[in-house]
Amino acid sequence: MTGAVSPDRRRFLTAGAAVVGAAASAQLWLPAAARAAETPLPEDVFSLGVASGDPLPDGVVLWTRLAPDPLNGGGMPDRVVPVEWQIAEDHRFRRLVRGGTAQARPEYGHSVHVDVRGLRPDRTYWYRFRTSGQLSPVGRTRTAAHPYSTGGSLRMALASCQNWQHGYFTPYADMLDQDPDVVVFVGDYIYESTPSATALRRHEGTGEPISLVQYRNRYAQYRTDPDLAAMHAHAPFVVTFDDHEVDNDFAGEIPQDPDKQPHDAFVARLTAAYQAFYEHMPVRATAVPDGPHIRMYRRLEFGRLARLNVLDTRQYRSDQATSQAGAQDPSLTMLGAQQKRWLLNSLQYSPARWNLIASQIMMAETDLKVGEGKLWFYDAWDGYQAERNQFMEEFEQVRNPVVLSGDRHLTMISDLKADYADPDSAVVGAEFVGTSISSNGDQDQEAFRREWDPRRPDNPHWKLLDAHRGYHLFDVRGDGIDAQVRVVDTVRQPTATPSTLARLRVEAGRPGVEVV
Asked: pTM value?
């Protein structure tokens, strides 16, 4: 090819993730005949950025969604659009290792999910997309360790609960600087709440999302947060959902308010919500929804160092109890029979040094009543005591179990106990309940202490309790896990000052967690 290439055609967009675009030409990507055959699309089709997820030793999922008008249904023509992709060993894309063309289909919101295979384990790669002469931001990702690798380390971030209306997603800016290998997101990626006139950042739309287009618009709004977009473009995410991706405190096909949401209407809402979740998450085709059902529980391996079991604590659960007696009903299930068997088998036959469980909701007990008696959150594992207690019994035979949770909008780090009715019972594991990215906003710390400190004597298994916004960072090695509680001073401004609130340690072979 001869002739000059204009500067704007040579410019690579980035996602603000410290990835510098190379001086390469979109014109040079395709043969002239293929370029001529393209039908131009609206400008800014890559407005929602790029992401990667679910890393394997030889592969990773690459994601984008074409949406030139993201808050109004997407703005794409009603046709299939070919999208080229490339993945390389360098950010200048001089050492290409894989590439191809994916189809962005209107029935999936013109989202693209490329399940790349044939990569090398424990390696960093860069990727990008192109369509209609437009280039995506450049993304950076990383594969998991070789299946039989016994050494090394894994840096993992735990995040959850990012409410657009409560604040900016400033913890992600610090997470980007900490450079994790993988981000585990355990639920409440969006909130379904109605727009509030007094909110710091107002939700789009006029009410709660119910239809597919409404859920697409809500996800698209969240994807425009610059810190979230930058983090997605910097490291692979492992995601699961909790309740607010659909409806607060729903259980299976039962909404929070069945008197206001008839069953058929709620099933239609589930169908729309799960499809929008799939369309906006870097997950494999195994997660393509089947109507009001989506397969989300799965297992990821990071060599022989760590096995990550990702749970779904919403689709298969019994309806929540409404009393202490109900919470102890042995027929209640959080996971459902099939997922429960899957998790037990995964733990019992794991070859990994660390057995991690990503659970949307808290597993350790939270006794809310000061003094004698018990008072529990029935939506959490406390509302499903028989099943929780069975797992506590199993944990005594599992190598280094550590639970990673969200939901509470608090940092709550605990020992897991064989029997919470007996404070002297054995410690069988550790749990890190990560605080929220933005939900609850900048909390009144003194009010929090007045409410929660009196409960600590009734919950001696709690090791750390805090109400700042942020995330948890883990350095997983063979001899132990070093954890940091990373917090920010505010989510009410677009920028914040981060700090380490606390450091903790889980020693291999010694159940429980200690503040260091």
From this structure: 0.93
